Amino acid sequence: MSSSDPKTALPLAVLDLTIGTAHINALGHLEAGTYVTLFEKAIAPLFSRLGITDDRLLHTTDDSAILSPFLVEMHVCYIAELSTGDTVTISAQLLDVDAKRARLMLSMTKAPKGLSKAHQAATCELLILNMDTTARKPANWSTTQTAAWHKLRDQQSPLAPPPQAGRAIGPLKSP
User: Fold this and answer.
1) Which of 20, 27, 93, 137 can pair with 11 through a Cys bridge, CB separation 3.0 to 4.6 Å?
2) Which neighbouring-strand residues pair with 93?
3) Closest CA to 124 of 2, 3, 6, 11
């Protein structure tokens, strides 16, 4: 993948799954909370794959400190209904990173059926804070973690932020 070619830079595919019947509501589509649960299931594999943590969401530094990314904020946008049997892929895009924090966008894309094309079903913007698990306070990313974040940032640098990035629910305006 070239870090300078927007045609080859892609969000990082993290998780593929098929929607079962257990969390379909009375309206025939996936419950809102289950979208969040599915996004959360993608976080541990993402961090492990990047080398930010192991499969327990922990990272031991050279000086034996144990660090872990903590989710401190999230914003979900529901874009399309999902139903039983739909297949989805959850992908990640790094939006921003600093010494202790990372801002990510997870995107849930529904696989095509028949002649239709894949389309976005939901997004989930996350703010992650690195924590020292002993002191229970924010900590800088380790050298290894920083390198992993910077590698992903460089690979995805040509990608534009998704339109849902940075959204917030503001006050309602009277008509």
Assistant:
1) 93
2) 105
3) 11
